[in-house]
Amino acid sequence: MQIEVVGVRFRHGGTIYSFSPNGGNYKKGDKVIVETERGNDLVTVVEDEKVIDASSLSDPLKNVLRKATEKEIEDAVIFDEKASAYLPEVRKMAKESGLEMKIVSVEANFDNSKITVNFTSDGRVDFRAFAKKLAEKFKNRIELRQIGPRDAVRNMGGLGLCGKECCCAQGYGESDHISIKMAKNQNLSLNPNSISGLCGKLLCCLAYENDAYVKALNEMPKVNSFVVTPDGKGKVVYNNLLKRLVSVRFESENVAEVKEYKLDEIKFEK
Fold first, then answer.
1. CA 92 – CA 133 distance, rounded (Å)
2. Mean of pLDDT over the chain
3. pLDDT one-digit tens code per residue, 152-184
4. What is the pTM of this model?
5. Average of pLDDT values for 190-209?
C-alpha cells in the first residue's frame, strides 16, 4: 500500500522521521505539531510530502496535527533556554543524591508541560526519588531518560577526528547499522583509536560512506589475484579505491617490482 508522508526533525535530534500529513499541506521549513508516544511536540518539516510503500515503515505512522502558531514557536525557544539553564543545578543534585549517572542535557517540551533530563549510565539507575526531588525543585513534570553513548554525543555535539562537526549531530549515519566490516571495506586501520568517535563507538561516517566503497570494491580486482597489465601478468597487492588505481607486483629472477596502473589499463576476471 502506498501512503503519503512528510519528513520531520525534532528540535534536539538529527534523525529524520516520517509522519502522516493527515490531510494537511506542509512544506519544507514549516514548524508543526506532531503526536508522539511521549505527547505532542513541535518539529520542523525537512522533507516535502512524498509517497512511500507502507511496508518500508518499521513503526506505526503517527500524524502531523497542525501548523504551530508563532507564539508556540517563540515560547518553545524560551522554555527550552530556561530548561537548559537548569543543567548545572540538576548535575549538582544528581551528585548529592549519590547516583551513578552523567547528566547530558535538560530539555523542555514545546508547551513547558514536561521537562526531560537525559543521562547516561553504565547500568540501571533507580531514579524515582531523584525525579521527585526535581519535580519539587522545578515545579514541573519530570521525565528522566537514559540514552546511549551515540545519543549523548549527538545531543551535546563536538568535533570528530576529521575536525568537522560529528556526523550524528548533523543527521548522518546515526540510524544505520555500523560494523567493523565497513572499516575493512575502506582499507582503514583497525586500531580502535582510529575508527572510533567521541562516543567510543565505531564512526558514523563508516556507514555513511560504505556504499561507495562497496561499489568500488566490486569493480576492482581482488588483492592477491593475478591480472594482465601492459607490462605482463602480475599479482595485485593493493587497490586505491578512491583513485581507482591498482598496484601490481612482478617478480623476475628473484627481483620484485611493484607498478601502479589505472583500472582500465588492466584485464582481470571479476
1. 12
2. 86
3. 877 777 788 888 888 777 766 555 578 899 988
4. 0.69
5. 83
Q: What CA–CA distance (Å, rounded) separates 179 from 131?
A: 37
What cell was used for 227? 591480472
* CATH architecture observed for domain 77-147: 2-Layer Sandwich (3.30)
According to the 3-state scheme, what is the secondary structure of the chain? Answer: CEEEEEEEEECCCCCEEEEECCCCCCCCCCEEEEEECCEEEEEEEEEEEEEEEHHHCCCCCCEEEEECCHHHHHHHHHHHHHHHCCHHHHHHHHHHCCCCCEEEEEEECCCCCCEEEEEECCCCCCCHHHHHHHHHHHCCCEEEEECCHHHHHHHHCCECCCCCECHHHHCCCCCCCCCHHHHHHCCCCCCHHHHECCCCCECCHHHHHHHHHHHHHHHCCCCCCEEEECCEEEEEEEEECCCCEEEEEEEECCEEEEEEEEHHHCECCC
Gap between the Cα atoms of 104 and 5, Å rounded = 32
Half-sphere exposure of 214 (CA within 13 A, CB side): 8
- For the chain, the structural domain boundaries read 2-68, 77-147, 166-213, 226-265
From residue 75, how far is each of 32, 45, 72 by CA, in Å? 14, 19, 5
86 contacts: CB under 8 Å, gap ≥ 6: 106, 115, 138
CA distances 246 to 205, 263, 270, Å, are 25, 6, 14
Single-letter amino acid, residue 52:
I
Do 138 and 131 form a contact (C-beta atoms < 8 A)? no
Across residues 218-234, what is the average pLDDT? 90
The phi and psi torsions of 85 (rounded to 5 degrees) equal -70, -15
